[in-house]
Specification:
By secondary structure, the chain is α/β, with parallel strands linked by helices. The protein has a single domain (4-228), classed as putative 2-phosphosulfolactate phosphatase (Alpha-Beta Complex). 35% of the residues lie in helices and 17% in strands. The chain has helices at 31-40, 51-60, 84-89, 104-108, 125-135, 152-167, 175-184, 196-203, 207-215; strands spanning 4-9, 22-26, 45-48, 65-68, 97-100, 117-120, 138-143, 171-172, 224-227, 230-233. The strands form two sheets. It has a seven-stranded mixed sheet with strand order 8-1-7-2-6-9-10. A three-stranded parallel sheet has the order 3-5-4, with helices on both faces.
Length: 246
């Protein structure tokens, strides 16, 4: 069977990949990193696409931790910004987390119920490459984007995943995918510290999240999937000699 991979950006682009695609959602700074970190710590994670969706869900859960940002600001009544570093420092793991962000959670929540949607960041991209190779012949790797830009950190993560799939025999679906893979091939993760998202973190005194992301590159051998309203650790055996792709 012919295997293909495509890179795209923004939650709205999901409409083009409804039929036959496994979706990989990427928002390195910071939604998918926050979600993966929460689940790795043992916390339940419920992404929501909007504040209107967060309110009734919070009423159904027991003492939920409200985490997120809209337009860069933490919504009124929330407990924590969209911060993987601050999240890891908390000890209240028993509290389920509702995660709301400007673009990332809209992307995570945007696939059809019948579609496989995986949550990816720089922490788990090699594990995801191995899993996708074994299970999904047609993959769309989609960056969340921010302020109408396909941000550097998302391009890099999308490119690394797509490049790993190409090495496993996938064909890039279009010229844009080829171009993005070539642009970011062999580029160190530290380059994301030069982009506008990193500038925002520095200017808003949240540089600890950038430091956290750069200190946790490919450190999780787990696959995370969005299913029935939650990000969950996908329980399935991974080969013990699973390759690393950088």
């Amino acid at each position: 069977m012919r295997k293909t991979v495509v890179i795209d950006c923004f939650p709205e682009s999901l409409m083009a990949y409804r039929k036959g695609y496994a979706i990989v959602a990427v928002d390195v700074i910071r939604a998918t990193t926050t979600a993966v970190t929460a689940v790795d710590l043992g916390r339940r994670c419920f992404p929501v696409p909007s504040l209107d969706a967060a309110v009734p869900l919070a009423a159904k859960l027991t003492n939920p931790l409200l985490v997120g940002e809209l337009g860069g600001s933490m919504p009124y009544g929330f407990d924590l910004n969209n911060s993987p570093a601050d999240l890891e420092a908390r000890t209240d793991i028993h509290r389920p987390m509702i995660l709301l962000t400007t673009s990332g959670t809209r992307l995570i929540c945007g696939a059809e119920e019948s579609q496989a949607l995986y949550v990816a960041c720089l922490r788990n991209y090699s594990a995801l490459i191995a899993y996708l190779t074994a299970h999904h012949p047609t993959v769309a790797v989609i960056g969340a984007g921010s302020r109408a830009q396909f941000r550097e950190e998302d391009q890099l993560c999308c490119a690394w995943i797509a490049e790993g799939l190409v090495r496993e025999g996938y064909e890039p679906q279009d010229e844009r995918t080829i171009s993005i893979i070539e642009q970011w091939s062999g580029v160190p993760a530290s380059v994301i510290s030069e982009g506008p998202s990193a500038d925002y973190l520095r200017n808003s005194s949240q540089v600890r999240d950038l430091e956290y992301i750069l200190a946790h590159i490919d450190d999780l051998d787990e696959v995370y999937r969005y299913e029935r309203g939650q990000v969950i650790k996908h329980i399935e055996e991974l080969l013990p000699d699973m390759p690393t792709y950088r």
